[in-house]
Amino acid sequence: MSVLEFICDEEAIPVMECPTCGKTLLTEHGMRQHHTKVHGEPLPNRTCRGCGLEFYDPKARRTFCADCNPNAGKHNGNWSDAMETTSCERCGEEFDYYPSNKDGKYCSSCIDAADGLLPENPATNGDRVTVHCRACDATLEVRPARLEEQTRGFFCTLECYGAWLSENVVGSDHHQWEGGPITYGQRWWRIRRQALERDGYECQHCGVDADELGQNPDVHHRQPVRSFDQPEAAHTMDNVITLCRSCHRRVEEGTIAVSARDER
């Protein structure tokens, strides 16, 4: 029996069971994440109001499946049989277009050529000034207005920008600087191992385990180490919880919270 099953059995906590492999998880969210990551497809999250079919919608908004959707098929302005035919105002050739778009004026061949059909783009005209990439010193030409916009200078590629950041935006110059590195101490590794064993090497938020991750999960401090006068005081079993790398990052960012159930 896993640690999760033992806790749920002892405290009568309802669990969610994966319909594919039977794995038990504490939350529906965790079960859905598990099914998507492990079995390669998301579980249905919507029920069609027309026929009762369960289906998956990434945004969880649709109320009808594709077959019952009242805006699909012939009811949709982009339905293939709803196309109309007209003549190109430039070359005279007939072409089909969807009436839900703008009135058809030009065929696709004339649009692809775009010779005289489109107005000139003002961004392509005007004076340019020469600047140099701050990382590799390559020459660039930019509009004068950008000289005031780019407070960090100009870079020819994202790679150059990243290299410059790595060398210059570090330590106290970084926006997340909080005073330098922390020494966790020797006790941390013992507490970390005990936390992993207590939690069955399984993320206590989404349920993914070490076998699925291919490595041990992270161990998160509920109360940050920096908030303690002595780092060793933060290393207690009540203050740590096992999380996968993804959930750990989201907790640190504040986009999710570790609930009371997850902390058991």
TrEMBL record:
<dbReference type="InterPro" id="IPR013087">
    <property type="entry name" value="Znf_C2H2_type"/>
</dbReference>
<keyword id="KW-0378">Hydrolase</keyword>
<protein>
    <submittedName>
        <fullName>HNH endonuclease</fullName>
    </submittedName>
</protein>
<feature type="domain" description="C2H2-type">
    <location>
        <begin position="16"/>
        <end position="44"/>
    </location>
</feature>
<dbReference type="Pfam" id="PF01844">
    <property type="entry name" value="HNH"/>
</dbReference>
<dbReference type="InterPro" id="IPR003615">
    <property type="entry name" value="HNH_nuc"/>
</dbReference>
<dbReference type="GO" id="GO:0016787">
    <property type="term" value="F:hydrolase activity"/>
</dbReference>
<keyword id="KW-0540">Nuclease</keyword>
<dbReference type="InterPro" id="IPR002711">
    <property type="entry name" value="HNH"/>
</dbReference>
<dbReference type="GO" id="GO:0008270">
    <property type="term" value="F:zinc ion binding"/>
</dbReference>
<dbReference type="GO" id="GO:0004519">
    <property type="term" value="F:endonuclease activity"/>
</dbReference>
<dbReference type="GO" id="GO:0003676">
    <property type="term" value="F:nucleic acid binding"/>
</dbReference>
<dbReference type="GO" id="GO:0005829">
    <property type="term" value="C:cytosol"/>
</dbReference>
<keyword id="KW-0255">Endonuclease</keyword>
